[in-house]
């Protein structure tokens, strides 16, 4: 699967999958794995990718992040690139985010 295919899969299937349990869900697993399998050889060894479909319950806006491990390995500190899906799955946004939870 390519990065594009992963994004399209989330956009096309997320709303239907939200009616199913999140535990052991294939789409939730796809989001948690991020682009790690898609981008094999595309990223350098210090780049990792993972995302979230929610913890225990489905997220309103799932996301997939791309992290430079020299800067951060977490979404709660540092800065990183994130693909953020709109709640109605009509759009996906690419943004540069800064973790804030670490500071509170």
How would you describe what is shown here?
By secondary structure, this protein is an alpha+beta fold. It has one domain. Helix content is 22%, strand content 25%. Strands 1-2-3-4 form a 4-stranded antiparallel sheet. A hairpin with a 6-residue loop joins strand 3 and strand 4 (92-98). The mean pLDDT is 90.
Summarize the structure.
By secondary structure, the protein is of the alpha+beta class. Helices cover 22% and strands 25% of the residues. A hairpin with a 6-residue loop joins strand 3 and strand 4.
How helix-rich are the residues, as a percent range? Answer: 10-25%
Global morphology: globular
The whole-angstrom Rg is 13 Å
Question: Structural class from helices and strands?
Answer: alpha+beta
Compute the number of structural domains.
1
The portion of residues forming beta strands comes to 25-35%
* SSE order: HHEEEE
Flag low-confidence runs: none
Give the helix tally: 2
Distance between the termini: 38 Å
Main beta sheet strand tally, sense and closure: 4 strands, antiparallel
The averaged pLDDT comes out at 90
Organism: Fructobacillus pseudoficulneus
Domain Type IV methyl-directed restriction enzyme EcoKMcrB subunit DNA-binding: 10-101
Protein name: Type IV methyl-directed restriction enzyme EcoKMcrB subunit DNA-binding domain-containing protein
InterPro entries: McrB_DNA-bd
């Amino acid at each position: 699967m390519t990065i594009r295919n992963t994004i399209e899969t989330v956009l096309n299937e997320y709303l239907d999958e939200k009616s199913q349990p999140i535990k052991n869900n294939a789409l939730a697993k796809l989001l948690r794995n991020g682009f790690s399998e898609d981008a094999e050889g595309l990223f350098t060894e210090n780049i990792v990718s993972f995302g979230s479909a929610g913890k225990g319950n489905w997220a309103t806006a799932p996301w997939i992040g791309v992290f430079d491990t020299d800067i951060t390995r977490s979404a709660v500190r540092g800065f990183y690139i994130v693909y953020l899906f709109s709640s109605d799955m009509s759009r996906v946004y690419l943004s540069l985010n800064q973790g804030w939870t670490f500071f509170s």
